[in-house]
Amino acid sequence: MDGGSGGLEVLSGAPHSVSCASSSGVEKDSFERLPPPEHALSPWTRMHQLFSQVLGQRDLSRAGDLFSLEDAEIEDCLSQALDQIKTISCSPDYLTNDNDQAVVEICITRITTAIRETSSIERHSVALVGLWESCLEHNLTPQGENTEDTPHAKIASDITSCILQNYSCPSVMVLAVPVAVRFLQRGNRELSRNMSSYLSLAAIAKADLLAEHTEAITLSVLGGRENK
């Protein structure tokens, strides 16, 4: 095709927009019959249809159906789903949107279960740790008399064990330890307690990964004792 710019146009951004115009002597119908090139597929194209519906439409009514799917059936798209969850949880209205919070909570439970059952933590560790780390950009400590975890503290808590139970896996811990240390310094007592327990196990399995974080860990432990 001469100059393909008038045919299939893939624009950056999410979701991707596709424009099919008639040009260069090629009819519009021709484009509609052609699949997009592999490199132009958006994450939604590769995501399981049910995950796409639940996350794309924030469809709480279908979220529970994710548990009817086989783990192997959805394993390929877990990283894409985690990236979309991060987008949802970082949106300005997430803190006040009970529907979105419920969708995210169910999807995270389904994803972490699938990761454990398929032993695919290494494949999805970048996306999982990325979502985990994004929680640090938000409030993690209950305010006033409210003792309930904040929405982002709930996400962090739900992900923590899935990541840090793999304390003997160096490729996962290289990503996770620096983030875990930052959680120690954020003041959420329950999260800090869980991090300390897992980091102790990580220190036994792979002490060199924690060496550069010794001071921060020590200060966190001392701070925890003072607050008891």
From TrEMBL:
Q: Which GO terms describe its molecular function?
A: phosphatidylinositol-5-phosphate binding
**Record's compositionally biased regions (Basic and acidic residues):** 26-36
Localization annotation: Endomembrane system
Q: Which GO terms describe its biological process?
A: regulation of signal transduction
Record flagged with keyword RNA-binding: no
Q: What keywords appear on the UniProt entry?
A: Membrane
Alphabetical GO CC annotations of the entry are: endomembrane system; plasma membrane
Record's protein name: Ventricular zone expressed PH domain protein
What is the source species? Answer: Pleuronectes platessa
